[in-house]
Amino acid sequence: ANAATTGDWANAATTGDGANAATTGNWANAATTGNSANAATTGYRANAATTGYWANAATTGYRANAATTGYRANAATTGNSANAATTGNGANAATTGDWANAATTGNRAIAAALGYASEAKAENGGAIVIVNRADDMSIRHIFASKVGENGIKAGVWYELSADGKPVEAA
Q: Is 16 helix (H, G, I), strand (E, B) or coil?
């Protein structure tokens, strides 16, 4: 069972194995439940939430957040202030927008925050990837570490300083 919407305030909701949802437009949200149930949104504040085994969420747009729950249920966002959060073993979160944060709570999950002034956090068994960028978006430094190594603590937000050191975010 698939759902697709186009337009402002257009929402999509699906339930079932292989049930996908796709939305385009302002405030266009997508929610799916079930194995392999993916959600993709494009637009201002177009959020995606998925629950289920391999239930992935991808969003594009300013403040277009993605949240997933489930084993290997990944979340990816592109857009300023577009955050990604995942819960589940191997469920990765990646963001590329400025001020966009990535958080994971599952074992073997990676949180990657690749935009300007972005932050990442992960739990035990996970890892983070953070970048420090200059105002012109050139990459000054990049840092990757497992939680428990290099001073990285579980459940703590980290950003990368101008000298390439991970620091706890304020």
A: coil
pLDDT band at residue 38 using 50, 70 and 90 as cut-offs: confident
The residue type found at 32 is T
Say if residues 49 and 57 touch (Cβ distance below 8 Å).
Answer: yes
- Return the closest-CA partner of residue 169 out of 150, 156, 155: 156
- DSSP code at position 152: P
Own/partner long-range contacts of 57-60 (Cβ < 8 Å, ≥24 apart)? 57/30, 57/84
- Paired with 133 in beta bridges are 139
Residues near 159 by beta carbon (within 8 Å), at least 6 away in sequence: 117, 118, 119, 130, 132, 166, 167, 169
For residue 8, which of 29, 31, 26 has the smallest C-alpha distance?
26
DSSP output for 100-127: --EEE-STT-EEEE-STT--EE--TT-E
Q: Give the neighbor-by-neighbor strand order of the sheet with 93-95.
A: 3-6, 21-24, 39-42, 57-60, 75-78, 93-95, 110-113, 127-133, 139-146
pLDDT tens string 45-96: 778 888 877 778 888 888 888 888 888 888 988 888 888 998 888 889 999 9
Rounded average pLDDT over 110-133? 96
